[in-house]
Amino acid sequence: MPAPEDCCPDCGARFSFDSKTQKLFCRFCTPLVKGESPEHYHEADCPEDGTAALSARVFGMPEPELIIPFKLKKEEAQQALRAYLHAKVLAPDAFRAQNHSADLKGIYLPCWLFAGSASAGIQYHAARQSHSSDAEYDYTKTDYYRVFRYGTAAFEYVSGAASLSIDAALMEALEPFDYREALAFRPAYLVGYSTAPCDLDAQQAKQRAVERIKKAFETLLARTAQSYSTITVQSSSVCVQQGVLRYALVPVWLLTTVYKGRHYYLALNGQTGKLAGALPLSWARFWAVLCGLGMSIFALGAILLKFLLQ
Question: Which residues pair with 241 in a beta bridge?
Fold first, then answer.
């Protein structure tokens, strides 16, 4: 049975979520229940309406702590997808001509969010070059250094995919999500959307999150050594200490399509509209564009050569 706070106090129907106003509302009673969150409605008798235990759609895992509701409506997502495909001139015409936007599905993807701190010590082999010249010679001086960098940093909202239903790299390509807009989870937010199964536990997702933290920390420390001409990592030690672990759902518009027997996946961040994915390539058009560029460069070179020889 749905929780009372997820039901309309007037008719007992489950609340729906409006992505434009970011409010829960009743589809049968207007307006948006005074534009309020239904937190103070605790006495409503909510009948079972076929959507009971929506939170069970999180597939055997604990109920999510946080959720980022959809901001991008389906019509907006479809328009963004059409514009994206129209701009991809190297994709086959037959693929671009298909009405892929009709197959766009709204889905909440589960993820584990990590917060804590990290400390690192990195040793680099670096070189710095300087140049000088006199009347007869040009000189290059190269100085070599052993460089050490140490640091500590706090981090939060580092995500690790919690579902095998979408490639982790594709999900990471949709980031960032603004978790400052995350809300406390309520099953009513799931109405009208699918929910991917959570089939990766926290420990499985943690390994990928730790790798991302280490890579980001190494990049951060490397920026402090940009005064050198070249820099190479000799050794690196990054220690990650986990603090808070949270389970969340994030909104994604997902397209799965098949072209010439191969599956392709395109996804839009349901909060920001950022789009990521892979498309088939028209090799005929690719070579045509490449040859066109080659002819243009050849023609430009001929004109330049003629000008220099005049």
Answer: 117
Return the domain boundaries, the chain. Answer: 72-163+193-267, 280-310
Beta carbons within 8 Å of 275's beta carbon, 6+ residues apart: 80, 81, 84, 266, 267, 268, 269
pLDDT under 70: residue ranges of the chain? 1-61, 88-101, 280-296, 298-310
Residue type, 14: R
Which tens digit of pLDDT belongs to each residue from 177-187? Answer: 999 999 999 88
**Number of neighbours of residue 68 by Cβ within 10 angstroms:** 21
Question: How far is residue 203 CA from its own chain's centroid?
Answer: 21
Q: What is the dihedral of CA 184, 267, 273, 157, to 10 degrees?
A: 40
Please name the amino acid found at residue 117. S
* DSSP designation for 218: H
Q: From CA 62, how far away is CA 68, in angstroms rounded?
A: 17
State the pTM of this model.
0.68
